[in-house]
Amino acid sequence: MTTSPKVRPTAITDRSVGFLLARAHRSLRGRLDVALAGSALHLGHVVLLACLHAQNDLTQTDLARMSGIEKSSVVIFLDALEEAAWIERRVPPADRRARTVHLTTAGRTRFAKLGRKLQAAEKQALAVFNAAERTQLNALLVRLIGHLDGAD
Asked: What's this model's pTM, rounded to 2 decimal places?
């Protein structure tokens, strides 16, 4: 019985940035999903929590814009996070018609613990790069996203 060689992108697909980004995303996401196991959270929840951790009291529209998640999905994710006491929706004094989303103290504590697990998984996944390369990769991806989001 013969074993097949390790399958890797072909000479054609390994020159396609779109293909490579999609493949890297799929592999990294799998590792992050393992880190999330047992938390009852989806990566969409985590992205919104990370946005709120960085800048609390955002509107749902701000969260959609900041996270890149579709508005209707943001609402679904926030409903679940609110039910689980990660976040609460508040009425700002300046505009009683609006609602801002606030990361609760308990949510901030829980996110910090979960964040350490996710950071460890990401660090392991990116261990092939040295610190300078990770910084460069991050900067290039931020630049690409900014360009693509501005191209609408």
From this structure: 0.82
